[in-house]
């Protein structure tokens, strides 16, 4: 039985978050949690929190053995982009794009 959790509007680029998501994909929950807690990447903390949320969702749902859960898939989609401008020399402006992402983690039981 699948269980999921979603993090929306995370202030990190999707490209950076996908690197972290690939670390946890396919691992048991305990190993994925360990991997994310000791990763130096900034997105690892966000994904670790999301993983704990998904495990809590599994406990609430009932009928699921939490010890047999593994990370089935991690989806990282692009979110909205905040557009800002930085003033430069001679009256010009440089655009700054502050990207966001939506992350969905799906857990499943091993059979």
Give an overview of the whole structure.
The chain has 111 residues and is an alpha+beta fold. Helices cover 35% and strands 40% of the residues. It is built from three helices and three strands, in the order E-H-H-H-E-E. Helix 2 runs antiparallel to helix 3. The radius of gyration is 17 Å and the shape is elongated. The mean pLDDT is 95.
Report the count of strand segments.
3
In round numbers, the mean pLDDT is 95
Low-confidence stretches: none
Strand order within the widest beta sheet: 1-3-2
Order of helices and strands: EHHHEE
Strand portion: 35-45%
Can you give the helix content as a percent range? 25-40%
Structural class: alpha+beta
Determine the number of helices (DSSP H or I, runs of at least 4 residues).
Answer: 3
The separation of the N and C termini measures: 10 Å
Quaternary state, please?
single chain
Key terms:
single chain; 111 residues; alpha+beta; 3 helices; 40% strand; elongated
A few lines on this structure:
The chain has 111 residues and is α+β, with helices and mostly antiparallel strands. 35% of the residues lie in helices and 40% in strands. The protein has helices at residues 14-24, 29-37, 43-61; strands at 3-10, 69-87, 93-109.
């Amino acid at each position: 039985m699948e269980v999921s959790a979603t993090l929306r509007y995370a202030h990190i680029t999707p490209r950076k978050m996908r690197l972290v998501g690939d670390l946890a994909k396919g691992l048991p929950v305990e190993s994925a949690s360990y991997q994310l807690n000791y990763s130096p990447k900034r997105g690892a903390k966000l994904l670790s929190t999301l993983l704990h949320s998904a495990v809590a969702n599994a406990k609430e749902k009932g009928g699921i053995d939490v010890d047999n859960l593994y990370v089935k898939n991690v989806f990282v989609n692009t979110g909205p982009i905040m557009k800002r401008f930085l003033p430069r020399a001679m009256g010009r402006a440089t655009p700054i794009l502050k990207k966001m992402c939506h992350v969905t983690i799906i857990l499943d039981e091993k059979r």
